[in-house]
Amino acid sequence: MAFVRAIVSDIMSAKEDAKWLQWVTQQFETIAGQDREINLQEFKTALNVKESFFAERFFTLFDSDGSGTITLQELQEALTLLIHGNPMDKLKFLFQVYDVDGNGSIDADELRTVLQSCLLESAISLSEEKLDQLTLALFESADKDCSGDITFEELRDELQRFPGVMENLTISAAHWLKPPATKRHSPRPRPLTSAYWHNHRSQLLCLATYIGLHVLLFALAASAHRARGVSVMVAKGCGQCLNFDCSFIAVLMLRRCLTWLRATWLAQVLPLDQNIQFHQLMGYVVVGLSLVHTVAHVVNFALQARSESSPFQFWELLLTTRPGIGWVHGLASLTGVALLLLLLLMFACSSSCIRRSGHFEVFYWTHLAYLPMWLLLILHGPNFWKWLLVPGILFFLEKAVGLAVSRMAALSIVEVNLLPSKVTHLLIKRPPLFNYRPGDYLYLNIPTIARYEWHPFTISSAPEQKDTIWLHIRSEGQWTNRLYESFKATDLVHCDSKRLSRSLRMRRSQRRPQVSEMPPENHHLCNIKCYIDGPYGTPTRRIFASEHAVLIGAGIGITPFASILQSIMYRYQKRKHICPNCQHCWMEGIQDDDMKLHKVDFIWINRDQRSFEWFVSLLTKLEMDQAEEPQEGRFLELHMYMTSALGKNDMKAIGLQMALDLVAKKEKKDSITGLQTRTQPGRPDWSKVFQKVAAEKKGKVQVFFCGSPALAKVLKVHCEQFGFRFFQENF
Q: Which DSSP state fits 410?
């Protein structure tokens, strides 16, 4: 059987090689043109590298005859060596790349030049002193005989200390000329699996109930008017469903009621975390039913106008009150037309391209059309007010309470920090009765930025922090950009004469086990009036009821986890005891009702180096709190990923990653972030990440994510494969 498998493998490999050579030939001819040769500039364009050093080195090595151009034969020979050659052939090529002067050895200056180019390729910015340190660390580790040069054998021995690098070096070495992989569709969840049902049972049950209710309402209304024809039956059936949808759609946005429900047993039954998704679904249903309802009535009016017994023409039935259609002065037709126009306007302005393209205000103001819509619906349908009675009372009560609480007393922004990646860090004086939980959010209004606009932001400070509320706001839309620019443009905004004394008293009164943020680019002590509405609950409230929580944040998606991580460490420190005699530390093994966590894995994914800077001090403090514990048994484990950095298997980064590993091992901290946790290049391999989590067996695993919807879909599929519960924070 092994012999047969080997033959099959050889046949498959031969077919793949033939396809690859054909593809390379096509690409070469496209780039080379009529002369069938590639010069250095064309080679740089094809290679698509940020730094020309590697392009020039690769070009020199590919150009075997030294003619200054590369022929198809030279390219095929070089790529065949890189992709199909043995490990020693590939290692020799790497050595030649590093041996800039071609003397058969690598000196410290050549290695520094290579590492500097590696930094540029990976979009990493380090000081000259740090670059020298990385160079010396790698050079001294490889130069075993202390001769002042690295020989081929020494480089080979050094690479063998990093498992998997030699085997995979070929993949990245010629990745730029590999045929594009067949486009794979995003993984989709499998609805018939037990894991899918486990993660979606409450949503599926509610959706089934919703569909069943619509079928029932439509059938009852249609059957009551079956004597008036099909068009009237359809119109009445859709109208009855719209009575329910147009009233209940407001219930899904009662944030205070939903926050209260999260603290009850109903949170385990109802899909409260998907309230916005259900709100959007009902919006689509309302638009669809309204169009069918309108078309059915238009058909009915056309049939009536054609009837000899009807005294009215079609346009009179549709656009006037003369026929007396409706229960309030014949306004049914006119209000129906107005309702459809308003609905289509709201629907168009609610699209994601409007909301996420810096025009949130358009979405916000057009969505306020629900008030005239409710008034028109009351005039349009004789029974709508009955459906609206209870939801409407709840809705207006919540709005009244929210307005009263938010406007009861103006608060003040006492400090502002402008952080990297255009993040604005606000410190707001905390009201006396403002009680919230980790991960909650609030609505913020700053009259000096926009008098009538309220925007939701996650609270990034822990509830145990009594004096101030922290908000970290990234500049993405018009309002957030105005906020950032208003502080960037002025040195001090509305500052009072006692600001330094007030800030000093506030800092000294905050007795909390954490360090302040890293020194920001701009720092303002101020006294700016603002209003807040909240707090409101989120899915992350479930974290403390988990046994093993995996928190995944992408970019600014760390914000809800900032509060949670701080609160976790507050509670963790409360369980920590130190013997006054021998200074021995131990933890209480008893799990309380507020926190059942046994283990927390925090994964933060950022595109570039600067995105880590604004929050690294908190993570440093979290690591310090666990410094005395062994790595294997730590309660909180951090995992950092930088997607712009090239991996160890890439020839343009292998030396840098090896040097970073050596320095991190020596200094016990990462050169990119300063944390003890080593920043990993590239994107996480989620299968390996979740395999490791499952192997730890710390209890039931729940995954909490805040980031892009595309990544959420990928994570959801992986969670279902491993049987993990998945919760997504609105991004």
A: -
Report how far apart, in Å, the C-alpha atoms of 257 and of each of 394, 545, 594, 722 are.
9, 21, 22, 34
CA distances from 406 to 373, 409, 448, 699 (A): 26, 7, 16, 41
For the chain, the residue count is 731
Helix (H) or strand (E) run with residue 441 in it: strand 441-445
Alpha helices in 85-126, H assignment, sequence order? 87-98, 108-121
Q: State the first-to-last Cα distance of the chain, in angstroms, to the nearest integer.
A: 53
DSSP state of 469: E
* Integer CA distances (angstroms), 546 to 404, 585, 591, in order: 36, 25, 11
Structure confidence by residue, pLDDT tens digits, 357-387: 667 778 878 888 888 999 999 888 888 899 9
Sign of the alpha-carbon torsion through 124, 126, 130, 132: positive
Written as six digits, the tokens of 473 are 């706001």
Strand ranges across the sheet with 411-419: 455-458, 441-445, 522-536, 411-419, 423-429, 468-474
The 8 Å CB, 24+ separation contacts for 175-181 are 175/650, 176/46, 176/47, 176/48, 177/24, 177/27, 177/46, 177/75, 177/79, 178/20, 178/83, 179/19, 179/20, 179/23
Residue with tokens 């995996």: 550
Q: What is the mean pLDDT of the chain?
A: 78
> CA Rg, the chain, in Å?
32
Give the separation between CA 53 and CA 58, rounded to whole angstroms: 9
CB of 600 within 8 A of CB of 635? yes
DSSP strand E in 624-724: where?
Answer: 636-642, 679-681, 701-706
d(CA 630, CA 646): 30
**Confidence band of 16 (pLDDT split at 50, 70, 90):** low
Burial, 579: exposed, middle or buried (Cβ in 10 Å; 0-12, 13-18, 19+)? exposed
CB 139 within 8 A of CB 111: yes
Could you write out the DSSP letters of every residue in 474-522?
E--SHHHHHHHHHHHH-S-SS--TTHHHHHHHHHHH---S-PPPPPPSE
- For 222-231, which contacts have Cβ atoms below 8 Å and span 24 or more sequence positions? 229/300, 229/303, 231/296, 231/297, 231/299, 231/300, 231/303
Query: Cβ atoms within 10 A of the Cβ of 356, count?
Result: 12
User: For residue 212, what are its two tokens?
Assistant: 């069943």
Please list, residue by residue across 308-343, b when 16 or more beta carbons sit within 10 angstroms of its beta carbon and e when fewer do: eeeebeeebbbeebebebbeeeebbbbbbebbeebb
Structure tokens at 406: 């938010």
Strand partners, 106: 150
CA 28 to each of CA 22, 31, 47, 603: distance values in angstroms, whole numbers, following the listed order:
10, 5, 12, 41
Reduced 3-state DSSP string for 549-605: EEEEEEHHHHHHHHHHHHHHHHHHHHHEEECCCCCCEEECCCCCCCCCCCEEEEEEE
Query: What is the spatial distance between Cα 19 and Cα 463, in angstroms, rounded to a whole number?
Result: 60
**Is the model more confident about 493 or about 565?**
565
Using alpha carbons, select from 481, 557, 493 the residue that is nearest to residue 522.
Answer: 493
From the list 326, 329, 294, 298, the residue with the least C-alpha distance to 314 is 298
Nearest alpha carbon to residue 127 among 677, 679, 681, 671? 671
pLDDT digits (tens, 9 = 90+) for 577-630: 666 666 555 555 545 556 677 888 999 998 888 777 777 777 887 777 776 666
Helix axes of 230-248 and 370-380: crossing angle, nearest 10 degrees: 140
The amino acid sitting at 519 is: P
CA distance 705 to 552: 5
Q: Let me know: does 400 contact 435? Beta carbons within 8 Å.
A: no
CA distance 90 to 168: 10
